[in-house]
Specification:
Blueprint (H helix, E strand, L loop, with lengths): L1 H10 L6 E6 L5 E5 L5 E5 L17 E4 L2 H8 L21 E7 L2 E7 L4 H20 L3 H5 L2 E4 L23 E2 L6 E3 L7 E2 L2 E2 L1 E4 L4 E5 L3 E4 L2 E2 L9 E6 L7 H10 L3 E2 L5 E11 L3 E13 L3 E13 L4 E6 L1
Parallel strand pairs: 8-13, 15-17
Antiparallel strand pairs: 1-2, 1-5, 2-3, 3-4, 5-6, 7-18, 9-12, 10-11, 12-13, 14-16, 16-21, 18-19, 19-20, 20-21
Length: 317
């Protein structure tokens, strides 16, 4: 099934003589045109096309890209082992497909899920998209309910690891320049102005948060919050502290605020109140989980960001 979808997506796309193209592990397409002006086109997979019937790659986008950004991307191609990433008959879920046309010479590479080189290249494409998204408004966050699918949960791969409790725990800090870390690429809301906020620690099988933006951060299950005591999520630093809309979107999309147990959640913004010292967001959520049948449970919560201390708190409502 995955192979059929993978083949269908690529067969529908025509490349010009100077193109770089990536199909990521979810089927989203990044088409980089190297003719003047240099542009990147993002063609997201839609819900009805996804294998889960829930995942969506977001909104279509096309914008210009700088020559230096392209050079940063193509410099990563020197790490590609041409024999290691050749075409195969078996495409597993998460496989990335890279095509590079240079003066009509076509080169193709296939990167399996969690491959380090493939992750770096995919991360760079998502960085381009993130920088564009951050330059626009966050109005889509408030206008539409957020669909949070399990496919984008950074903690999914670690759920069975005893070193990390996926339902809680303080998230350790990391310097983004440290060795033995790899940026978390999904979803794109994990990048702030091109900078990654979460990283996989390859030597300890855990996720860490960028110390340039947080002094501490905790995961909290918002489906189980009580009405009496606020829970500390963490402390955010400047400049991210002043971009509360992006920060709130990040906390939900990254599942720092855990919004479902099994498959997915739908979260709708109810209210956004701005005072002198803080910004507060109130949400109505609904998540699905399975026992011997499909269950749906609704919940409400409020998350506040203090402009002075940077403290992030959440409470049930």
């Amino acid at each position: 099934m995955f192979k059929a979808i993978f083949t269908l997506f690529f067969s529908c796309i025509t490349l010009s003589a100077q193109d770089i193209q990536l199909i990521d592990g979810n089927g989203n397409i990044y088409n980089l045109n190297l003719n003047h002006p240099n542009t990147i086109e993002y063609i997201p997979i839609q819900t009805k096309q996804s294998s889960s019937g829930v995942y969506s790659g977001g909104n279509y986008s096309k914008f210009e890209i700088q020559k230096k950004q392209i050079e940063n991307l193509t410099s990563l191609f020197s790490e590609i082992n041409h024999s290691q990433y050749k075409k195969t008959e078996n495409y597993n879920k998460g496989t990335r497909h890279l095509v590079w046309l240079n003066n009509n010479e076509k080169k193709e590479y296939y990167f399996p899920l969690n491959d380090k080189v493939g992750d770096k290249i995919e991360s760079k494409f998502k960085e381009f998209l993130s920088m564009q998204n951050n330059s626009e408004t966050n109005l889509h966050f408030f206008q539409n309910p957020l669909i949070i699918p399990s496919e984008n949960n950074p903690w999914s791969a670690l759920a069975k690891n005893p070193k990390l409790d996926p339902q809680g725990n303080k998230i350790p800090l990391t310097n983004p320049n440290e060795n033995n870390i790899m940026p978390v690429n999904l979803p794109t809301e994990l990048l702030y102005k091109g900078n990654h906020l979460l990283f996989y620690a390859l030597d300890s099988s855990e996720i860490r948060v960028n110390e340039n933006y947080f002094s501490e951060l905790y995961r909290t299950d918002v489906t189980k919050l009580t009405l009496d005591t606020p829970v500390l999520i963490g402390v955010v630093l400047t400049p991210l502290r002043t971009d509360s809309d992006f920060l709130m979107n990040f906390l939900i999309q990254s599942q720092v605020l855990i919004s479902y147990w099994h498959t997915d959640a739908e979260i709708k913004l109810l209210d956004r109140l701005i005072s002198k010292n803080e910004v507060c967001y109130s949400f109505l959520g609904e998540h699905h989980y399975y026992t011997n049948k499909k269950n749906t449970t609704a919940y409400q919560f409020k998350t506040c960001i203090n402009n002075e201390s940077g403290k992030i708190t959440t409470i049930g409502i």
